[in-house]
Structures are given as structure tokens and as C-alpha cells.
Write a structure and sequence with these properties.
Layout: H1 4-10, E1 13-20, E2 26-29, E3 43-44, H2 46-52, E4 59-65, E5 72-79, H3 84-88, E6 98-99, E7 102-104, H4 113-121, E8 125-126, E9 129-134, H5 140-154, E10 159-167, H6 169-178, E11 182-187, H7 192-211, E12 215-221, H8 223-233, H9 251-258, E13 261-263, E14 268-276, H10 282-291, E15 297-300, H11 303-307, E16 320-321, H12 330-343, H13 348-361, H14 365-372
Parallel strand pairs: 9-14, 9-15, 10-11, 10-12, 12-14
Antiparallel strand pairs: 1-2, 1-4, 2-3, 4-5, 6-13, 7-8, 13-14, 15-16
Length: about 375
């Protein structure tokens, strides 16, 4: 069996995500390499870019021709899964009309206890902008992995991207092996510039997808490390606040998180990002405060629950979704509100342990909610 890279070089077709270099054409980057530059990347001439109206982030398939300096793209078949004519006719991102999230992800149907609890207490739909708020060692990475698998099982037609920023190399390998998603990663042994470039490329790619009416889900680990990277990258560009955070450092991370939306008569972008708290870093606290309240869903993990080995370590009192009435039927909403009222005054450990017993008693969330009707 030939190696994928060898097959890619020998084939007369190529696919990838275009990165346009200033006044020098562009290159098709390979998502399997997390869009990192490579000498085998096909060159895209300025003439092709102009002729087809290409923009950085567009996923392209086309014909290539080998050359002395490397392969070159000679023709384009599809752009973001569309014909070139359809791509040119797409609606620009700025003109997309954002509406409330809709179409709940039924992530609890697989029976995973964590996913069943999240679906009841912090339901997510197409266009959700959610945070997983987590102190260290509370299971955020495992929860993100479970969310990826559950969303894929419920919505296989959606494009799912896992973005790992400044992540431990072994975690990158683990995600690539375990989740049915496109994993774009920069590991902790890479430079700040590489972290920043990957975030910008991912954001450009997702913008192109939603402009073309597609449904995309992006899971980010973590928005905190993304903020740190942009703070180092843009150091000195603005006023330095307490904690060493540059006043302009979070402009791109805010744009990335704010990109999540459900488009009227169009596609959607769902962004679920982890945010670190209680790390002992003033900068991390400031980054979290910048994003707190800008989302429409929060899953809050609890250090005391994790220290007591109670998992999932979800604080049911502080976990929730804005306008969850748009994601549940009236009967479901009534039952979920009853469930919340029974747990609101309980200590976090008692609440989550009580929920786990209910999940054992009722094999599905549908049965559980019917029992509360």
C-alpha cells in the first residue's frame, strides 16, 4: 500500500485549503498536516486566484502538474464542495443574518452519562457558542472528546473540526486516534507564530464553509491557550493590563468565538471551547472574564467534585444554556425545569450523584423526562 503523501504527489488531482501569500500566489495546505507548510504543497498562481475569486481558507480540489520547483495547480473543480460559479455567488459573512441556535444535538442518545446530563442541563443546537469552564484536572479533555463523538453520531452530515492550540503532543496523538473529526493541532513544542497561524487559518476555513451554507462544529482546547498565544504574538501592540495581558491580545480569539452562529436560511457554525480557571494565573482569569457572558451555553466543571473522584464533575447549578426553550419542546422544557428545581438547592456532589442514579433508573432521557411530566 502506498503512503498517502506518495499518492498525493503522484496523482494528477489535489485537494487542500488555500493559503494566499501577499502578492505571491498561494499554496494548498494539507489538513492532515494541520495545514502546516510543506514543500509538496501545490502552488496556486495569482492568475488562478484572481480568475476564481479565491480567498484564504477555501477548500479546493483541482488538477495539478508537476514542476521543477514543485507541483502547481492548473485547474479547479470544486471550491468548498461547490462549483466555482456557486462559490462566487456565496453570501459574504458580514451579510449573513444570525438567529438563535436551533436543531438540538441529541448527544445523549448513545447512553453516555456525561452526554445525557449535558443534553438535559446545557442543551446545544446548531449555532451554539459554548464554553466548558474547567479548573485543572477536572476532566475537560475527556468531556471534549465525548462531545465530539456524540455530535458526530447525531449529525454525521456536519463537518466537525477539533482545534488544539499549544497542546501536549501526546494529547494531539490521542485525539487523532480517538475522535471521528478533522483534528487541527499545534503542539507545545511549536512556536507562538505557528499557534497564531493555525488559528487564523482555521477561522478563515470555517468562515468560507458557513458562507457556502454548510454546517460546521468546532471544538477548541483551549480558548485560554489561544489567548496566551496571541498575547505573546502581539506583545507591545496595545496597553498592558494587569496580569500582563495586552489590551488587544484577544481581538482574534473573540472573533473566533463570536463566529458561532445559526444563519437564517443558511448554514451554521457551532463553537465549543474550553476555558481554564483556578490555575493561579491572573492572565488566565482575565481571559476567562473576557469570554464569560459572550457565549450562550456554559458547562461548568467543579474542582471539589473531581478531587472527590465524582465524575462527570459537572456543577449542575451553574451549568446551563440561554434560551433553552428554543431547543426543547414545551413538554420537555417543563420536565427539565422540574429536574432543575429538584437539584438547585443540593450540594454539587449530592446533585450529580442523584442525577446518575436517575440515569441508571431510566435508560434514556426521553423516559426520564416522561416520568417527570
Amino acid at each position: 500500500m502506498s503512503h498517502p503523501e506518495e499518492s498525493r504527489r503522484m496523482s494528477n488531482t489535489a485537494s487542500g485549503v488555500i493559503e494566499i501569500m501577499e502578492r505571491r500566489g498561494g499554496f494548498l495546505r494539507n489538513p492532515d498536516r494541520s495545514l502546516q507548510p510543506d514543500r509538496t504543497d501545490p502552488f496556486v498562481s495569482p492568475q488562478l486566484i484572481s480568475r476564481f475569486g479565491l480567498v484564504t481558507g477555501a477548500a479546493i480540489t483541482g488538477t495539478v502538474q508537476p514542476g521543477g520547483k514543485g507541483p502547481s495547480l492548473t485547474g479547479i473543480e470544486t471550491i468548498c464542495g461547490q462549483t466555482p460559479e456557486e462559490f462566487r455567488a456565496r453570501r459574504p459573512f458580514a451579510k449573513l443574518l444570525a438567529v438563535n441556535p436551533a436543531g438540538r444535538f441529541h448527544i445523549g442518545k448513545g447512553g453516555n452519562p456525561s452526554m445525557r446530563i449535558v443534553e438535559l442541563f446545557a442543551p446545544m443546537g446548531r449555532g451554539t457558542r459554548g464554553l466548558v469552564v474547567a479548573p485543572p484536572k477536572t476532566g475537560k479533555t475527556r468531556l471534549l472528546e465525548e462531545l465530539t463523538i456524540a455530535i458526530h453520531d447525531d449529525a454525521p452530515e456536519a463537518r466537525i473540526v477539533v482545534l488544539l492550540v499549544d497542546e501536549r503532543p501526546e494529547e494531539v496523538t490521542h485525539f487523532r486516534r480517538q475522535v471521528p473529526a478533522e483534528v487541527l493541532a499545534s503542539s507545545s513544542d511549536q512556536s507562538t507564530q505557528e499557534h497564531v497561524r493555525l488559528v487564523n487559518m482555521c477561522m478563515a476555513q470555517v468562515r468560507c464553509e458557513i458562507e457556502c451554507g454548510h454546517h460546521v462544529v468546532v471544538l477548541v482546547d483551549s480558548i485560554t491557550r489561544m489567548g496566551r498565544a496571541f498575547n505573546v504574538h502581539g506583545s507591545g501592540s496595545g496597553r498592558t493590563m494587569s496580569g500582563g495581558l495586552d489590551s488587544r491580545a484577544l481581538e482574534i480569539p473573540r472573533k473566533f468565538f463570536g463566529m458561532a452562529r445559526n444563519v437564517e436560511d443558511g448554514g451554521s457554525v457551532t463553537v465549543l471551547a474550553t476555558a481554564l480557571i483556578e490555575t493561579g494565573s491572573r492572565m488566565d482569569d482575565l481571559i476567562f472574564e473576557e469570554f464569560k457572558g459572550t457565549g450562550n451555553s456554559e458547562i461548568v466543571l467543579d474542582r471539589q467534585l473531581a478531587d472527590s473522584r465524582v465524575f462527570p464533575a459537572i456543577n449542575l447549578r451553574t451549568t446551563g444554556t440561554r434560551r433553552d426553550d428554543l431547543l426543547f419542546s414545551p413538554e420537555e422544557l417543563n420536565a427539565v425545569n422540574k429536574l432543575r428545581r429538584t437539584t438547585i438547592d443540593m450540594p454539587p456532589a449530592q446533585a450529580i450523584e442523584g442525577m446518575l442514579k436517575l440515569l441508571e433508573k431510566y435508560p434514556t432521557n426521553e423516559e426520564l423526562l416522561k416520568s417527570l411530566a
